[in-house]
């Protein structure tokens, strides 16, 4: 009788070990995914900053061109 109890306990321990092993593997996979996603976020953030700078530069250029156009239109109205 006690041998059967011991076998059941051994089976449960083995099942627990297997579950722990699978969970550890899953944790490692998730850590790797987390690292990859963190890198993607850093790249995206860098791209975002670059696009913001480019957008600001283009807005400034647009303002310069608008000012030039207004000046030219003003000169044409004078003629």
From TrEMBL:
Belongs to the ZapB family. Homodimer. The ends of the coiled-coil dimer bind to each other, forming polymers. Interacts with FtsZ. It is found in: Cytoplasm. Non-essential, abundant cell division factor that is required for proper Z-ring formation. It is recruited early to the divisome by direct interaction with FtsZ, stimulating Z-ring assembly and thereby promoting cell division earlier in the cell cycle. Its recruitment to the Z-ring requires functional FtsA or ZipA. Residues 6-61 form a coiled coil. It comes from the Bacteria. Pfam families: ZapB. This is Cell division protein ZapB. The gene is zapB. GO terms for cellular component: cytoplasm. One of its GO terms (biological process) is division septum assembly. Keywords: Cell cycle, Cell division, Coiled coil, Cytoplasm, Septation. It comes from Serratia symbiotica str. Tucson. The keyword Cell cycle applies.
